């Protein structure tokens, strides 16, 4: 029933052209915003300044295989932040199907909600296979999907496809018919491929670690026949390897370019830099969207915790998790004396998931040696990125605990009450430790949010209360998730933007879609949303030949994922890159720079500054009204 409800809701949201995008930040007038509820989030700038404009740009151009995204003509099938493309791999990018089948607005809605569909359905399937309880599995699926971390970061595709792979493999091992087992093995391969092609190792690897250890535990607990285990696993591995091999071969140039960058290609991170306070602050999410959350950006401390995204976490009732692990350990030690049968508790799966939690926590908080990160691949995971997998593992542990038939003594009321109070205390401690204005969040409110979370999580371990407790947690999770993102109708803030309208009236992307933009990233986003390509702005990976000619002595700056704000320099002066903050760069360059002209062959120039005396520019018009800005539009004379 839950999958049908989710799919029906997805169809309604896409049909009504509703998304959670923050593009209303572009609107000049309220009537052009399309904002139904909530408010655009400044911290979501990657979404409304890069991802959404690039997607709309690609959709308006017919979803080409390559496009200029910054200072490179990137392979859109491998570039982080690239738009959707009709490359054959779109078969494994279901999140982009809406752009191919529908108009750009509904394509955005499809893309926005698809991750939640996959995550809810996949987690429901996995919990159903493990608990055999429909309503409990539905509640756990909502809890695992609608976390503060998923609200702020939107990583549900990574979790959903990873969980789908695990659920499909377990189903393959359980299936009575060989044909059905083979089909499930192929579904697992499809899920792994789909997760891999979303291209963010930090979330991919951590989720797959949890799923892999769960599957190892399942094999130890259920002991499927060795032949079924061998051939279904072989089918999944061979199918995955075959498709990924073809993908690598057809996109090797783009992959090599990304791998050859200093950041992110050569980046390896050290363990122990995550904030313990941020790992347990999920109950505080109700205040993250308000003034208290906004004060994080003014903390001056920098780093991952300087905004609401960096401070968010998944549901992680650490005290209850400790009680679960302690109870299972005691049962395992006294198993023979208590005559606990193998079917009474999934010891292997509980141990595997517990090991994943310990591993992720250790990587997040402890100064582990670099060799440890290299052999486990954890050095690809920023410690602050573990909440996605860590939170899911904790909910998975609670779900598995509901299947234990002989309850250990430490799951009695005194211990559970202590765990609930400890959760409340940790929530208050987290509120006091976060770098926000503590006067804006009452300690009593923080404690109350922690009590609700802690009591509900603890009551999941009580057989007669587990269903109701999980339902309370599900409602609590949904209530926390809903206020974070706005509800946006259509893409009118981009379609009706004065610059976008002027570009469509005065320039022809079919003649030449490449534009040089002198100004901030908002102007770049407007250009892309009009169906053009911007050579300015964010560059997922550089064109080595272009950049070697443009700034030969500055490879340490340009050989990275970077965001360039272009500033006009006198004609004939060499280009110079200046670092601003983090990946933000300032490029001092002449609009008529011969290197850019030769490599990028631009057709148009948009500038916040009046560009006079440049031999390559022909003024077309001045655009007024783009949020009280005056923008100048020029045609570019190619030589």
Automatic annotation (TrEMBL):
Keywords: Membrane, Transmembrane, Transmembrane helix. It holds the Pfam family DUF7657. The keyword Cytoplasm does not apply. The chain crosses the membrane at residues 110-127, 157-173, 180-197, 203-220, 229-249, 314-333, 345-366, 386-404, 411-429, 441-461, 468-484. InterPro entries: DUF7657. It comes from the Bacteria. Residues 4-401 form the DUF7657 domain. The keyword Glycoprotein does not apply. This is DUF7657 domain-containing protein. It comes from Agromyces sp. G08B096.
């Amino acid at each position: 029933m839950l999958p049908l409800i989710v799919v029906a809701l997805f169809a309604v949201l896409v049909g009504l052209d509703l998304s959670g995008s923050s593009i209303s930040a572009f609107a000049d007038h309220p009537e052009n915003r399309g904002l139904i509820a909530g408010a655009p989030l400044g911290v979501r700038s990657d979404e409304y300044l890069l991802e959404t404009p690039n997607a709309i740009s690609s959709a308006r151009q017919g979803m080409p295989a390559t496009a200029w995204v910054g200072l490179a003509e990137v392979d859109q099938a491998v570039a982080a932040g690239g738009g959707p493309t009709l490359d054959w791999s779109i078969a494994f990018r279901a999140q982009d199907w809406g752009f191919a089948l529908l108009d750009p607005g509904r394509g955005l809605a499809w893309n926005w909600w698809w991750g939640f569909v996959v995550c809810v359905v996949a987690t429901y399937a996995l919990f159903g296979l493990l608990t055999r309880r429909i309503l409990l599995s539905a509640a756990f699926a909502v809890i695992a999907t609608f976390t503060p971390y998923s609200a702020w970061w939107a990583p549900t595709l990574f979790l959903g496809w990873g969980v789908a792979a695990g659920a499909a493999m377990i189903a393959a091992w359980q299936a009575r018919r060989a044909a059905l087992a083979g089909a499930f093995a192929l579904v697992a391969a499809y899920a792994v491929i789909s997760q891999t092609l979303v291209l963010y190792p930090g979330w991919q690897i951590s989720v797959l670690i949890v799923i892999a250890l769960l599957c190892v535990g399942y094999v130890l607990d259920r002991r499927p026949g060795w032949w079924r285990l061998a051939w279904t696993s072989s089918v999944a591995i061979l199918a995955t390897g075959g498709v990924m091999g073809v993908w690598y071969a057809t996109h090797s140039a783009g992959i090599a370019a990304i791998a050859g960058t200093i950041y992110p290609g050569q980046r390896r991170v050290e363990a122990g830099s995550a904030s313990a306070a941020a790992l347990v602050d999920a109950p505080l999410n109700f205040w993250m969207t308000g003034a208290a959350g906004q004060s994080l950006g003014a903390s001056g401390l920098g780093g991952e915790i300087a905004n609401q995204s960096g401070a968010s976490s998944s549901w992680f009732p650490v005290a209850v998790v400790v009680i679960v692990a302690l109870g299972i350990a005691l049962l395992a030690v006294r198993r023979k004396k208590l005559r606990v049968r193998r079917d009474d508790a999934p010891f292997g799966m509980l141990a595997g998931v517990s090991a994943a939690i310990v591993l992720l926590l250790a990587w997040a908080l402890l100064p582990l040696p670099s060799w440890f990160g290299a052999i486990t691949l954890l050095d690809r995971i920023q410690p602050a990125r573990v909440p996605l997998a860590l939170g899911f593992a904790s909910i998975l542990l609670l779900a598995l605990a509901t299947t234990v038939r002989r309850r250990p003594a430490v799951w009695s009321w005194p211990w559970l009450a202590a765990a609930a109070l400890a959760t409340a205390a940790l929530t208050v401690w987290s509120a006091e430790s976060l770098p926000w204005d503590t006067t804006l969040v009452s300690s009593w409110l923080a404690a109350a949010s922690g009590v609700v979370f802690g009591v509900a999580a603890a009551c999941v371990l009580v057989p007669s209360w587990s269903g109701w407790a999980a339902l309370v947690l599900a409602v609590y999770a949904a209530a926390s998730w809903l206020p974070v993102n706005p509800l946006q109708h259509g893409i009118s803030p981009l379609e009706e933007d004065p610059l976008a309208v002027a570009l469509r009236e005065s320039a022809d992307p079919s003649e030449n879609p490449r534009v040089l933009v002198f100004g901030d990233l908002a102007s770049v986003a407007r250009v892309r949303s009009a169906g053009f390509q911007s050579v300015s702005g964010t560059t997922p990976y550089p064109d080595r030949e272009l950049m070697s000619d443009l700034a030969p002595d500055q490879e340490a700056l340009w050989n990275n994922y970077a965001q360039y704000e272009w500033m006009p320099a006198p004609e004939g002066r060499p280009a110079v890159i200046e670092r601003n903050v983090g990946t933000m760069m300032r490029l001092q360059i002449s609009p008529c720079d011969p290197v850019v002209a030769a490599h990028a062959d631009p057709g148009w120039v948009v500038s916040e500054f009046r560009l006079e005396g440049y031999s390559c520019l022909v003024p077309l018009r001045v655009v007024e009204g783009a949020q009280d800005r005056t923008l100048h539009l020029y045609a570019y004379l190619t030589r």
